[in-house]
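[job 4471] stage=fold_predict status=RUNNING
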Amino acid sequence: MVEEILKEALLNIFYKGYQQEIKPEAISFQQTRPEFEGDLTLVVFPFLKLIKKNPEVLAREIGEALIAESPMIQSYNVIKGFLNLVIHDDYWLNWMKGNLNKQVFNQQILNENETTVIEYSSPNTNKPLHLGHIRNNLLGWSVAEILRANGGKVFKVNLVNDRGIHICKSMLAWQKFAEGKTPEIAGVKGDKLVGEMYVQFDKAYKAEQKLLVEQGSKQDEAAKSAPLIKEAQQMLREWEEGDSQVRTLWEKMNGWVYEGFDVTYKRLGIDFDQIYYESQTYLLGKQLVLEGLEKGVFFKKDDGSIWCDLTDEGLDEKLLLRADGTSVYMTQDIGTAQLRYDDYKADRLIYVVGNEQNYHFDVLQKILRRLGKSWADGIEHLSYGMVELPEGKMKSREGTVVDADELMDEMVETARKMSEELGKGRELPASDANQLFDNIGMAALKYYMLRVDPKKTMQFNPTESIDFNGNTGPFVQYTHARIKSILRKAEASQLTWKTSDLQSINLMPKEKSVLVLLHNWSDVLLQAAMSRSPALIANYIYELAKEYNQFYQDNPILKEADVSRRLFRLQLSELTASMLSYAAQLLGIKMPEKM
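[job 4471] inference complete, writing structure tokens
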């Protein structure tokens, strides 16, 4: 906001004073270094080619012109070719007046006539959600909320991978090993029971391979000829042919999984505007592939399989339909993309999927372009790094994944223990204390997951994520609760500040630093949307909480003798709490009133 105002002033100065028409993007500011006085710094070196002057002379001339042109500039200083600008306190105070008592800090920046569909979660119905799914869900949901906060028209969707060979593996294992066990009989969530079946299949399948190898088969031959995998492949063919018994079992076991997913989603605070199922999209994908074959876009090999040749674009040949007519992941993704475009006429289709699928989405976009889909240019892969444990990667088939439900239980229990040790929640009724511990545990999990740039691989450490003095969600929550405590005490002392007029005062350093951070929110919010990075929001609320705590330590609030300054500090505190609460909501984090 400040920068845009100053850019307009500078464009006018360059045109009137130097007869130069400068492009707005050529003007850039940076935060003034701490050792110098100033709020923003303009680097004048880029203008020396157009304006033949000594850099220090030019910087001083621009500084004088800005003071004459813009009342928001209080003073300036020049360090070589750097013009450091001090913004007048009244500008910050006037901004604060305009934002007092607000609870929502969104903005209309993005084109509301453009539609974005963002897909995240995309679970398989052969296992429960795990740690990797948590990052995916939190990232996708948060990016959607950030885009909406910037005025975007956004729809959140989920594509459930509810068919395929991996689903058949769980189904076959249930038939062979479960002895009719149901979630109710087993006393577990349905998704966990089905996940156990998937692990059972893998163990039995490996045992069959081992036996075949001992009998003289090569490993790759054993993997293809083991009886279990052949049965699973036959079951997939029967499923695609519509066999009633296979379909009935499939519907029953998927129903168990969906009930389990819903419990996990609700606890994570994740929702969707629409859920797609691969079983409903793969046929459209097959149809599009066959149409592409007829048009000569794809080709058929001697065994009957259908492929797309992308070698002329530096890629390879991509399988689209197997020789037996069954589809692959790419087939259903083609169909899903078409269906999603038909449903929403989306200008942008964002897929939140791990970086191991970078190649897949590159291929998907190229195939859709070859099919003549103009909207394929709007496909965007929000590629993120995997979540790893200190001991290494997770493996679903071996049952070594970190279960999402168990992780959330662990986070809440750790939050309870650490909070009780520090005396937090001690004065709350038991039900309120339990809710507080749940909020702290979930905030720790969400903040830790989202504070890392999506592109980076991260290592998850549950204990480190719950630290009331570190770069964590609980630290931000505690700051919010501290402010709310101050405001309750002010109300009890019958101090008024919400409706009182803010007087012009000279800002002290820590007062100004908090106020400037609050002012910068709109820029952070926009950058988070453009970069698809909730990490910018997470780091912002941490910096704001940290800066407020330093202000609180250095400056009395309720005991401030000067009435105008006490009023200002109470208003600054309330605005900070409101901003922390709103920004944290975009990460799915709740701010407690008491801790």
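[job 4471] summary: The chain has 21 helices and 14 strands.
[job 4471] exit 0
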